[in-house]
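$ ./design --mode recover --in tokens.txt
reading tokens...
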């Protein structure tokens, strides 16, 4: 993969990261006597990145398969080979877009119960950290942003959360810090071992290290495990998932939205960008293990979700199941699986972020999330029930909504590579329908009595906040082609990278080929038809060998 710059605005990614951080500094400088300015400053500091990513979508070139676009690089610590090095490709583009668009929605849609000044400052620092993580192409820079996000989320949960918020915040911080400490050791070891083997200066440049595979096989496998553990905790992947339900349950609504929609993707993105790219042989070697853990997470998360009495905790466990699909798609190591995994990162962010917003709206009105204390809400709040229905069905994976396309591609890729695990994972789709439909029935159907009968419906501001989520859910379900066209070239490039560095990887791992190509799928979503036999979209040099 080469690196290219956008001639019209080469510093767009740098500005994208620095604007929210600057907004946080402005907030801290504002006097406490001007509380009316706190939300306005936070909103403006988050709207500028949102505007920039809309321009990036328009300027992104779909025919550049082997390049990072909007690249910007500056020396940071010259003696150590550390640089400010940013860029995006199809793997990271929509994660950056989703992050920049969801933060202003969370700021508008949820007001803090107290202390708005530090609340909005932490939100903006969190946005800068998430954006920096997705665009970083230097390992040290990536690690810095990967760790920065822990601090604002810790204070958001501990300061504005509910229930056992101190316990949940501490557990979240300790779990993720432990995994990241091992990754820091692996980053330093990787840079120095690479320098020693290649005979050059020490560098933390992702591209330079990945394109010059000089490590011994066992060394690369150990380093991969260190990276994978840090990412597995952040995903979170079974069995290091136990911090997530507590963090979600006790976090403020906006914290849960950002945690589900954006922060969990730092782990899945890390596995794809740094696991597969830096350690292609180790990724192939440990693929069966990662797929196994992903499938266990799908089934376990679904069963645990069905047993929850707290509506917010149910949605939290559903994330464990959905993220398992992303992991098995990534480690299917073929075009369908990885493309589906990237789509599911975005789909999960949209659907689950919207679910947490809706649960927060219900809690604000009823001051409880216990499913047994709710019921019949469809009668006093029909609009909220309708929106909840659409979002819930997108999370289930109903055809015509966004979740279906990603899950279908993941299962196609997984079936092609790990047939029986794919069959087991498909049961997770059925289980998702069980626990989500059952929860909807208990919360919105039946007789409404007491406070339930008087619950207000969606307000106009809440409706405006939910509208972009609904548009994204329907658009990506009906016409996913623009997204696939931008994702697939980068997927083909990373598969080609694995093929070039892993002997025998081009041999098919299953004798079953899918009858639907990505291009056919995209066209069929638009034309309401079905694809036929054909080559997978992207580089024609892969085709059958990719699977």
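writing sequence...
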């Amino acid at each position: 993969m080469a690196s290219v710059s956008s001639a019209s605005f080469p510093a767009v990614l740098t500005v994208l990261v620095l604007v929210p951080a600057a907004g946080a500094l402005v907030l801290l400088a504002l006097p406490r006597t001007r509380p009316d300015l706190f939300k306005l400053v936070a909103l403006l500091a988050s709207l500028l990145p949102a505007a920039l990513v809309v321009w990036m979508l328009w300027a992104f070139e779909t025919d550049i398969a082997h390049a990072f676009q909007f690249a910007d690089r500056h020396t940071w610590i010259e003696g150590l080979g550390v640089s400010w090095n940013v860029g995006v490709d199809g793997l990271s583009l929509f994660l950056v877009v989703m992050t920049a668009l969801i933060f202003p929605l969370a700021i508008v849609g949820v007001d803090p119960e107290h202390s708005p000044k530090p609340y909005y400052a932490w939100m903006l620092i969190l946005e800068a950290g998430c954006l920096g993580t997705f665009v970083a192409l230097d390992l040290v820079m990536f690690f810095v942003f990967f760790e920065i996000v822990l601090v604002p989320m810790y204070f958001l949960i501990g300061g504005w959360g509910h229930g056992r918020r101190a316990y949940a915040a501490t557990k979240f911080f300790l779990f993720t810090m432990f995994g990241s400490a091992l990754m820091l050791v692996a980053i330093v070891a990787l840079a120095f071992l690479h320098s020693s083997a290649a005979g050059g200066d020490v560098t933390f440049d992702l591209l330079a290290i990945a394109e010059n595979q000089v490590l011994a096989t066992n060394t690369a496998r150990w380093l991969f495990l260190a990276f994978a553990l840090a990412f597995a905790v952040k995903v979170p992947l079974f069995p290091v998932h136990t911090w997530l339900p507590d963090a979600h349950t006790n976090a403020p609504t906006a914290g849960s939205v950002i945690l589900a929609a954006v922060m969990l993707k730092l782990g899945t993105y890390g596995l794809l960008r740094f696991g597969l790219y830096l350690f292609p042989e180790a990724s192939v070697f440990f693929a069966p293990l990662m797929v196994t853990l992903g499938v266990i997470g799908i089934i376990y998360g679904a069963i645990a979700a069905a047993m929850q009495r707290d509506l917010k905790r149910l949605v939290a466990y559903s994330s464990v199941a959905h993220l398992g699909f992303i992991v098995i798609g990534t480690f299917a190591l073929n075009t369908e699986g990885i493309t589906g995994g990237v789509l599911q990162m975005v789909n999960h962010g949209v659907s689950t972020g919207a679910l947490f917003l809706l649960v927060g709206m219900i809690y604000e009105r009823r001051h409880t999330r216990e499913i047994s204390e709710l019921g019949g809400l469809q009668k006093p709040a029909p609009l909220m029930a309708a929106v909840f229905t659409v979002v819930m069905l997108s999370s289930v994976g109903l055809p015509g909504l966004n979740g279906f396309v990603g899950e279908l591609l993941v299962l196609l890729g997984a079936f092609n590579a790990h047939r029986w695990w794919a069959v087991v994972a498909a049961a997770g789709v059925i289980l998702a329908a069980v626990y989500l439909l059952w929860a909807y029935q208990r919360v919105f159907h039946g007789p409404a009595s007491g406070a339930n009968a008087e619950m207000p419906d969606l307000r106009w501001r809440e409706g405006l906040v939910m509208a972009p989520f609904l548009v994204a859910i329907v658009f990506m379900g009906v016409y996913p082609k623009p997204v696939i066209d931008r994702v697939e070239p980068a997927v083909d490039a990373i598969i080609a990278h694995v093929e070039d560095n892993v002997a025998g990887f081009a041999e098919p791992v299953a004798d079953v080929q899918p009858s639907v190509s990505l291009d056919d799928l995209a066209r069929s979503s638009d034309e309401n038809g079905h694809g036929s036999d054909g080559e997978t979209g992207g580089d024609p040099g892969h085709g059958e060998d990719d699977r």
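exit 0
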